């Protein structure tokens, strides 16, 4: 499959349906929503798949990108894709493993933008939102986007995260969360 990002850059993808890259239309919409908020941000890409979202963030000036992906072959592709688009001053890291086991290793770090795109039928939605809240991974002014099937009921976020908006794109739905301001 051919996959292109900002600047008409081509990315590698794995054959088959082991990863499900975010559709170009959804990717473009997200980066339009977050226009002006990517340059200099710290980006966390959960269930990173092909790494297209992190690559897009790097190409738009994110200061740091961290990705978590369970599938080893996908981690190799992500590493190659990010290496291709990152500038020397843009650190990035690809962590292989179960997202719920890897998130605690990020304790003490804070991210301005978090993108979470698990397999749509997975049971990861609520536990990952809970882990992000407990570990304080989302910066106070940051925002998290969660990609899911449009028919999927919204997960119950922990009290420290607030669902702020939903944007449908065909069968895909983006849900946006911010830190709850008391």
UniProtKB/TrEMBL annotation:
Q: What is its EC number?
A: 2.1.1.171
Q: Which EC class, in a word?
A: transferase
What does the record list as coiled-coil region(s)? none
Lineage, top-rank taxon, reads Bacteria
Kindly give the Pfam families that the UniProt entry links to this protein: Cons_hypoth95 (PF03602)
A GO molecular-function annotation: 16S rRNA (guanine(966)-N(2))-methyltransferase activity
Which protein are we looking at?
Answer: 16S rRNA (Guanine(966)-N(2))-methyltransferase RsmD
